[in-house]
Amino acid sequence: MPLIVQKYGGTSVAGPERMKAVARAIIARKRRGARLLVVVSAMGDTTDDLWALARRITPKPDPREMDMLLATGEQQAIALLAIAIKARGEEAVSFTGAQVGIITDSRHTRARIVRVKADRIRKALAAGKIAIVAGFQGESAGEEITTLGRGASDLTAVALAAALKADTCELMKDVKGVMTTDPRIVPEARVLPVITYDEMLEMASLGSQVLNARSVEYAKKFRVPLVVKSSFEESEGTMIVEEEPGMEKTLVRGITFAREQAKVTVLGVPDRPGIAAVLFRALASADLNVDMIIQDVSESGITKISFTVPRSDLALAMETARTAADKLGAKDVRSDENVAKVSIVGVGMLSHSGVAATMFSALAQSGVNIQMISTSEIKISVVVEKARMQTAVKALHRVFRLDTRTVEAGKPFLVEPEKIGGGRKGAGRRKRGKSR
C-alpha cells in the first residue's frame, strides 16, 4: 500500500467539529487503501495565544521556556485527533517530535532539522495504525525540546516524508491549492494546477503564506512529491514538481506581497571600500535578515544605503544601524514602516524578454511609485508605498492575465507606453542584473 503523509494546519483542526471532520477524512483515506502518517499543527490560534500569555509576564520570554510552552499546543492537537480517530473504530497513536526522533540543532524557537530517525513511526505503520505526529517541534542532541519556527509544521511533514520515502506528501490547507495571488485582494485569482519547486520557493520566501519556505527547500533537496489541497472540500489542488513540460511558456506564475516590511536608510555615508561590509556585518551579527539593498550613486564622496527588514526586526535593525553609522561617520539613520513588497514569480522569465518593462509600466499607469527593485532569475520584487500595495497586486495580476488561460509562447504581455512620471523615476538605475 502507498505511504501518504498528510499535514493539517491549525485552521483545519480549530475546534471539536473540525477535528472530527478531519478524523473522518483520514479514516476514509486509509480505507481506500493507504498507510497514513498525519502531521498536525496546534488548534486555531493556540500558538498566538501562548505567545501572548508569555508576553503578559515579560516582553522578552526566555527562548528555552518558550519552546517548552509552545510545544504543548501541538501535543493537545495530536492527542485529540487520535482520540477522534479511535472513537470511530480505527487504530491511531500520537507522537511528539522528540518521540519520533526529529533531531535538531540547539537554537530555540527557530531550530533546524539535523536528522530524522522515525523508527517508532515505522513500527506503528507496520502494525496497521495511523501515526499522528506533532508538527513544528523536535529535540536537540542535548535532549531539549525545540521548535522549528512559525509555520514549520509543513517542514515536519516534508522531513518525515523524505525520511520514510513516502509516495506523496499532502499539505492540507484552508485553500484549494496554490493560487495566482491572494483571492481576498483579487477575487479572480485561480488555483495553479502545477508549480515548480523553484517558483514555489520564491513565492513562499516573498510573502505567500500557503507554504513554509523551508519546507519547499527541503522537498526540493530530497525530491519529495508535494500536493497542496483543501482540507474542507474535494479538490485536485496544486502539484509541486521539479519541472513540467512547457514550463517556460508561462511568463509569470503568481503575484506575492509582504505587508510587514520596513525600510532603513543610512544617510551621509563616506563612499569608500569596506563601508557596506562594516554595516552588513553588524546586521548579520545581530542575526537580522536583510532583504533588498540599494546604495545610491556617490556625490562628492558621500552616498546613502537603504535596506529592508521584516517590520518585527525594525527596532533592532535601527539600533544596530545607528551603532554602525557612528563608527562609519555617517550622518543619520532613518526608517519607514509604510512600505510593502510586491513580487512577480515565473520560470518563464528565464527565456522571455520584456517582463520587467511590462511590470514597471503597469505599476506606473496605476499610479504606483517604485522605491526599490531587486531581481533573481525567476522573480522581480519592488518596494512600494503600503497604501498602494493592493493596487499594485491587482494591476500586475491583470496585465499578466493570471485569471485566464496562459497565452501562447511568443506573445508577451506588453502594455502601451505612455508618460509614467514618478512611477518610473529611477527604475532604470536601481535595477540590477540582466534585462527581463
Please describe the topology of this protein.
Elements: E1 3-8, H1 16-31, E2 35-40, H2 46-55, H3 63-86, E3 92-95, E4 102-104, E5 113-116, H4 119-126, E6 130-134, E7 137-140, E8 145-147, H5 153-164, E9 168-173, E10 194-196, H6 197-205, H7 213-222, E11 226-230, E12 238-241, E13 254-270, H8 275-285, E14 293-295, E15 302-310, H9 314-328, E16 332-345, H10 355-365, E17 372-376, E18 379-385, H11 389-399, H12 427-430
Parallel strand pairs: 1-2, 1-9, 2-6, 3-6, 4-7, 9-11, 10-12
Antiparallel strand pairs: 4-5, 7-8, 11-12, 13-15, 13-16, 14-15, 16-18, 17-18
Please describe what this structure looks like:
This protein is an alpha/beta fold and 436 residues long. It folds into two domains: 3-174, Carbamate kinase; 247-436, VC0802-like, CATH 3.30.2130. The chain has twelve helices and 18 strands. The chain has helices at residues 16-31, 46-55, 63-86, 119-126, 153-164, 197-205, 213-222, 275-285, 314-328, 355-365, 389-399, 427-430; strands at 3-8, 35-40, 92-95, 102-104, 113-116, 130-134, 137-140, 145-147, 168-173, 194-196, 226-230, 238-241, 254-270, 293-295, 302-310, 332-345, 372-376, 379-385. The longest helix is centred in the first third of the chain and has 24 residues, at 63-86. The chain is globular. The chain starts with a strand and ends in a 6-residue tail after the last helix. Residues 405-436 have low confidence and may be disordered.
